[in-house]
Amino acid sequence: MNDKNILDHLQSFLTPRRKALFEKVLAQRTNHLTVVAQDVYQLHNTSAVVRSCDVFGIQNIHVIEEKIPRRIDKEIAMGAQKWVDINRYNSTTDCLKSLKAKGYRIIATSPHDDSQMLDNFDISTPAALFFGTEKDGLSEEVMKAADTTIKIPMVGFTESLNISVSAAIILQSLTTKLKNSTTPWEFTEEEKNQIRMDWTRKTIKNSEEVIERFLNQ
User: Fold this and answer.
1) Strand ranges in the chain using DSSP code E only, listed in sequence order
2) Domain of 81?
3) What is the pTM of this model?
């Protein structure tokens, strides 16, 4: 019995509308871009970033909790935590090492003058977008490891935006640019099947019992 048989059986419990929605969302999902939130103290900010990842088709978010562990506020995330993969790290070093091993460029978001403008950012190779706190920004470790830094054009007196606002603006801009490019950003069929399985299990009540009965029949 292979995973495809199990998936087909589980999806027989879904409505046609739910299956169609899964396919529609999967077609717009990507791992070409990923998001990292570093020690964001305000719980609602991290939760809002998770929501933005779901809205703009980013499948993976990485949460560094080096100082204070946090949970995701389900009310603010509005269920997005169910559909987005949340990867947690106890250290910035471990996160950087993991993302580099997967071939991601390390991109720091910073309002400083030497950062390149968002519109000029090259999306042709995978990128991990790091966001820090509004007050302190990203750590020195991230800034030193960064392949480049980007910023949102701002013309007012305020020099920074709330992390959740920054993430939404940057993700909307870069995912639009990515999907209008010739860069291959879509999931492979194998990746889609893995996510189909995960989403289907989360959708069906007592899915593990359903699978066990299917395997034993």
Assistant:
1) 33-38, 60-64, 85-89, 105-109, 116-117, 127-131, 148-151
2) 32-184
3) 0.90
